[in-house]
Amino acid sequence: MKPYRKYYENGQLKYEEWRVDGKIHRFNGPAYRGWDENGQSHFEVWCVNDKRHRLDGPAYRLWYKSGQLKFEVWCVDGKHHRLDGPAFQEWDENGKLQREDWDFKGTEYEKETHPFNVFCKEHNLNTDYENWPTDMKVLFNLTYEGE
Question: Thinking of the domain 4-108, which architecture would CATH place it in?
Answer without folding.
Answer: Single Sheet (2.20)
